Amino acid sequence: MAGGWTRDGAVQDQIDDTITDAVKRARADLPSGETAKYCVECGEEIPKARRHALPGTRTCVACQSVRDAGRVSLGINRRGSKDSQLR
Q1: In percent, how much of the chain has pLDDT > 70?
Q2: Going by C-beta distance under 8 Å and a sequence separation of 6 or more, which residues neighbour residue 39?
Q3: How far apart are CA 76 and CA 81, in angstroms?
Q4: Long-range contacts of residues 61-69, Cβ cutoff 8 Å, at least 24 apart
Q5: What angle do CA 25, 28, 31 make, to 5 degrees?
Q6: Taking Cα atoms as reference points, which of 11, 15, 64, 14 lies closest to residue 42?
Q7: pLDDT, tens digit (0-9, with 9 covering 90-100), for 43-76
């Protein structure tokens, strides 16, 4: 049940859109191209299991963790309340 001026199912539509966007963003972040044997950041050998599990990878686990920690997700504010837009 939606409240106020929204139609029934609007909240679920927002949830579905958020999930769809997250999946698209994750797929876009997947590596592509030729898999590197050595990390392009530090030069260490990338373990064979990682190269096999993630084709196209070019970084070792440690360097990728540093990259991921620095990534900021801005996302889209799909909530209708003014309070959520002030954050």
Answers
A1: 76
A2: 45, 46, 58, 59, 60, 63
A3: 14
A4: 63/39, 66/41
A5: 135
A6: 64
A7: 999 999 999 998 999 999 999 999 888 877 666 6
